[in-house]
Amino acid sequence: MSKKNITEQVKSSFPWLIMILMSSVTFVGILSELMPSGVLPLMMDDLNISEVQTGNLVGYYAIASAIFAIPLISLTMPFNRKHLLLLLLGGFAVSNIVAGLVHDYTIIIGLRVIGGICAGVMWPMIAAYGMRLVDAEHHGKAIAVIMAGTTLGISIGMPIMTSIGNDYGWRTEFIGLGVFIILIAIVSALVLPSIPGEKLTKSSSPFALLKIPEVLIILMLTLLGVVAHYGVYVYITSLVEDIQLAGGVESALLFFGIGSLISVLIAIKYTDKYLRLLTIAMFGLIIISMVIFLLFGGTTGMGHFAFFLWGVSFGPLVTLLQAAVSRQVETAKDVATSVQSSVFNLSIMIASSLGGLLLGIYAPSSLIYLAIGLSVPGIIISVLSKKALT
Known about the structure:
It is a single chain. The chain has 16 helices and no strands. It is an all-alpha fold. The chain has two domains: 3-191, Growth Hormone, Chain: A, CATH 1.20.1250; 202-384, Growth Hormone, Chain: A (Up-down Bundle), CATH 1.20.1250.20. 51% of the residues are buried. One of its GO terms (molecular function) is transmembrane transporter activity. Pfam families: MFS_1 (PF07690). InterPro entries: MFS, MFS_dom, MFS_Efflux_Transporters, MFS_trans_sf.
């Protein structure tokens, strides 16, 4: 059977197994980025570095992702999608395994930058790769399934990896993730369809995309949504302590995770038909959850319910915005999603900095007001942006 016939056969029905395999790639991608945050004290003691230096291991990764996404996606557009993904998985594996073996902080920074560069290319390209394996009416569903790996990584993967790190050492955690990535790469080499690259043209360049009003609207929604969510999420421990939530941060993350998983299932089923409605609901639910924190956060059960609602709002964040921007172009969807991905990563950096600044001056409730203040224009723009979110 020819490669063309294989691709057509995949498209004829939704390829769940292939999409779940791709979801495992985003699962390990988010773990590669966030792992140091779960074992900060262990890395500090072992490498004899400060808390700020250890935290920077996540920061350097994110910066590399944001800076290199657009130029490298444009550069690698002609590459075969399957071959490129296998190369990126190799980069993830090497950066994690070697980081678990060396003892020099500077070398580990370099390895984190390599991992960040791979992530900067992987996030937008895997979504576009998945969309090319299904018919147009299933593009949103494909993105939702693939990006579900990020939600599972945050809600399930991180607690598991942190537990491994605490029980067996952070080096075992890093090396173990690297080995797991190699296994995913082997399965991907055997299972994923081979898809040729695309030629980058002037009409599909990043600069051309930024001239499309609907793309700019989606990028604005990305900025508002990500800063609103992550401005609070990065400092979730402070919020939990401020409202004195029963069960502490573990309880908060549990309810947040349950909400996220439920919303991912909703996104998988309804993104293609109700993209705009789901985007409006996302901003609406974060406003409602933050208001509950302000008014009833200390009331038994209400704080937990607010974390659940917040999780429902948070879960489809990546899916909805990537689906929206991908609909604005016919070809070179990798470039479109890379622009959105870069804004997403830059927005996380802004959220972290702005949230830290507010927390240093005001009470944790200031983060809640920040989230509400950004979500209100977000919901207004979503209501008015019929063309951008169609």
